[in-house]
Amino acid sequence: MNAPRHFLNTQDWSRDGLDALLAEAARYKREVLGDDLRGRSIALLFFNPSMRTRTSFELGAFQLGGHAIVLQPGKDAWPIEFAPGVVMDGDAEEHIAEVAQVLGRYVDLIGVRAFPKFVDWQADREDPVLTAFARHSPVPVINMETITHPCQELAHALALREHFLAAEPGSDPAQVLRGKKYVLTWTYHPKPLNTAVANSALTIATRMGMDVTLLCPTPEYVLDERYMQWARDNAAASGGSLTVSHDIEAAYAGADVVYAKSWGALPYFGKWEPEKPIRERHRHFIVDEAKMALTNNAVFSHCLPLRRNVKATDAVMDSPACIAVNEAENRLHVQKAVMAALLAGRR
Ligand code: CP
Fold it and tell me: Is the pTM above the cut of 0.90?
C-alpha cells in the first residue's frame, strides 16, 4: 500500500488505502499477536483524558512486538508552545520544534490527542497542535482525536461492516455499506462537547457510500462547513447522499444505522451560556426504544464514553442492536493496521 506519510484524517487517504487498512484490521482481529512492530516504538501524547485510545494503542504496540510511551505534556512532561515566533515567557517550557524533533530521534511514530480549547473555533479549526506535530516531526504522526477522530472512524466502519456482513453473508466488505440509511443524531449532554466524532462520522459514512442524515436540533448544530463539504464531496464520489434534518421521526424512519453523539453548537463556541438553554430544550433527542422502533431494525453505536439515560437509554445500550463495545474493541485492531502501514518500508 502506498500510504500517506501521516494518519491525520481519513480524507487524506484513498478509498483503496482505507479499504486496505480495514482488511488488515480484520486480519489483526483474527491474529492478535505478531511482530510487525518488533523493535519499533510510539510516543503517545495526551493533552486530554482517554480510556480506550490509550489502552488500545499501548496494547496494540505491545501485541505486535513494539513499545509505547505515554506522555501528558503539562503534567508528566514539560508544557509545550505551539505558536511560531513567540517570546516564550508564559507557562510553556519548550517549543514544538524541539519536542517533535527530539521525539523523532527516539521513536518511530508519534500519536497526538489534543482537543479544541473551546474558546475560538476559528483558531481551533486550524488543528494547531496536530498540524505543528506533523510539520516538525521527522516520523509519522497519528491523530488520536483533535477536531476529527479518524481512528474512531475506522473502528466504526469495521464494526458496521462486520454487522452487515453477518446479515448478508458473501457480500463484498468494501461494498456492503453502500446504500444503507445512516443517521448521525445529535444528543443532549450537560456540557458542550467536541465536534470531532460528529465530523468524523459524516466523513466516513459518506465515504462508504451510505445515505447519510445529520439529525440535529436546529441549524446552529450543523457542523463546520469544511466537514459538510467533505461529506457532500464524498457522497458525490461514492454514490451516497447527505441530508440535514431537524425532524426526529423522519430521520429515524427506515434507518439501517443510528450513530449518536453530542456536540456544542459552533455559533456559540467560546460563549456557551446562551447555548445551554437550547441544549436543555432538546433532551428528548435521547436514543430510546421508541425511536429505534421507527428504524429498519437499525444497528446502534456510539464512540464511548456515553452517559446512560442521557444520550441513550439502558434499554438501547443493552439491546442486541448496540455494537458500541464491538466498535471500541475494533480501535485495537484498526490502530495496529495504521501503525504497521505507516511504518511499512521505513527502517
Ligand atoms: N472513543 C474514545 O476515543 O475513547 P477515549 O476518549 O476513552 O479514548
Answer: yes
